[in-house]
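Fold this sequence, please.
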Amino acid sequence: MKGKRLLMLLGSVCLILVLMALPSMAACAKPPAAETIELKLAHWNPPDAPIYITAETWAKEIEKRTEGKVKITIYPAQTLCKNKESYDACLQGITEVTITMAALTPGRAPLLDVMFLPLGLPSTLVSARVAWKLYEEGYLGDAYRDVHVLWLDAVDPGSIMLRKPVRTLEDFKGMKLRTTAGTAARTAEALGATPVVLAATEIYLALQKGVLDGTFYAWATAPDRKLEEVISCVIEEKVYGAAFVWMMNLGVWNSLPQDIQGIINECSGETMAETSGKIWDGEVEDAREYMIDRGVEIIVLSQSDKARLDDMYKSLQQRWVEEMEAKGLPGRETLEAALRFAKELQ
């Protein structure tokens, strides 16, 4: 009997001790750490190029704002996917985030080709603002419905870089000029040249071997391609433009917590369009000075040739409008919007 009482007493004491310890145990217990969200970002630019700098700027801001809950690993210079495959790589989940352009996915976003027209846009910043505004206000329709669009940006309005000097518009006849497909190729044809569609990574060798006489290209990235080694001069006419689309895999986007989505949206959109535009414009002056210091000549066309170019640009714009309208697309409305935004956003 005494043994039973002793056991009951010991049991009660143990229970009291356990109950007393519970609050302390609860205080010491740590909640499980939130799982880090890991994203891959693939692009085709080498280190120090504007796209590379833009990607790093965005990724660092996301990681900072999410306090490390999101980690973004960047795969530059086509190390994860080729530039022509970027859109499909994003759809298939090979990369969660990437960049593409309309010329790499012909037919997907025909109205975005308006940004490839010679619109006379003064800077990359203005070009990026116009591209984002066109998307934001619905002028591109549902072209990118299969992905989550983060932001749009642009290149600095392109110049003509040549192996041998060209002094008049007549000198372009019969020349082979590298362009992107579509609208930029039409501009080369209007000059009397033969457009050759090549990836940016192929330009150097084609110029070096004489396969090309020149290329439409942007100042900001020319030194990254070492073009000063294979060209002798540049005509600084804004003969074409280009717009990029930064995107995320839609399934991945939909799986993200709402607070993370909110932070990503705050760090993207108009904010990154402007940031990217400023990055490109900052690179332009440095690149221009770098190439001039290495012997690249700047050729200025005569006023009469400039006037002829202006007429040619208007003709190209009208042709594009007619082609879009023939497909049942609002070409004129889109062009007028782009030109209107350009004035408003300068």
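The domain at 37-102+139-153+244-281 is CATH 3.40.190.170 (D-Maltodextrin-Binding Protein; domain 2). The chain has eleven helices and eleven strands.
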